[in-house]
Design brief:
With 261 residues, the protein is α/β, with parallel strands linked by helices. Helix content is 39%, strand content 17%. Strands 1-2-3-4-5-6-7-8 form an eight-stranded parallel sheet.
């Protein structure tokens, strides 16, 4: 496609879906215009893998945290282990706490009070380490926003699925909005309206790879080189070029995560 400045603000290259060809794939991404990637942990082992990847690939950065789907199985000492990683955040190339948040979609997830307590604790930890957060919010808009109003973190609502009004409130709180493959899906009316309305200094591009591959690649394993498909949809909604969307996302991600050129 010939695009540049592709900053994938949410990826999971630590996932087993990449075990067979991870090195070859990551080696090729810069040639496809990818300038940087944030690899987000979902539990302690994957956070450590994200750190290992960030130490190996100069364009990769790590986020460490415990996802709401994983908190029920987290060890009792998860806070201590997470802080041990964050104690060496510069050496570990950790630029955010995440992926953290709330997920009320699956009944087998930890009870809501357990999720909320873990989310709140990780918001406190992020503030203590002066790091932004990467927030997962699935079917939990009300409680997510309540906690964000209380703690006022810097960060991004990843794979944003709320309304334009919710986006506007989040932006007023100082948060960024992560948009990816969902804007390309059939009947994606609300995500496209959000894409058109989000302020240009609060937009981030993402994949959530290996998940959420955009149309026309839906159903395949996603990777950061697919971001231009969603960028083109966002661009059409905003009346600008896809490259301009990528440039904005890159600039904004570097600002949020404190990454210097």
């Amino acid at each position: 496609m010939g695009y540049q400045n592709i900053f994938d603000s949410h990826a999971h290259y630590d996932d087993s879906a990449f075990d067979e060809d991870r090195e070859a794939l990551l080696s090729a991404l810069p040639e496809k215009g990818v300038c940087a990637v944030l690899d987000c942990g979902s539990d302690l082992p994957s956070s450590k893998k994200a750190v290992a990847l960030a130490k190996t690939w100069p364009y990769l950065y790590a986020a460490a945290g415990v996802h709401p789907e994983e908190i029920g199985a987290a060890p009792a000492a998860w806070e201590t282990e997470l802080c041990a990683l964050l104690d060496h955040k510069a050496e570990n190339r950790i630029v955010a706490v995440g992926e953290i948040g709330l997920d009320y979609h699956f009944k087998e997830n930890a009870p809501r009070n357990v999720q909320k307590a873990a989310f709140a604790r990780q918001l406190e930890i992020a503030k203590a380490y002066n790091l932004p957060v990467v927030i997962h919010d699935r079917d939990a808009h009300g409680d997510t926003m309540e906690l964000l109003r209380r703690y006022r973190p810097r960060g991004v609502l990843h794979c944003f699925s709320g309304s334009v009004e919710m986006m506007q409130e989040a932006v007023k709180l100082g948060l960024y909005i992560g948009l990816g493959g969902a804007v390309t899906f059939k009947n994606a009316k609300t995500p496209v309206r959000v894409a058109a309305a989000v302020p240009e200094d609060r937009l981030l591009n993402e994949t959530d790879c290996p998940y959420m591959a955009p149309v026309p690649l839906r159903g395949t394993r996603c990777d950061s080189s697919m971001i231009p498909y969603s960028a083109e949809v966002i661009a059409a909604a905003r009346g600008i070029s896809a490259q301009a969307v990528l440039d904005l996302g890159c600039r904004n991600a570097k600002a949020l995560f404190g990454i210097e050129d």
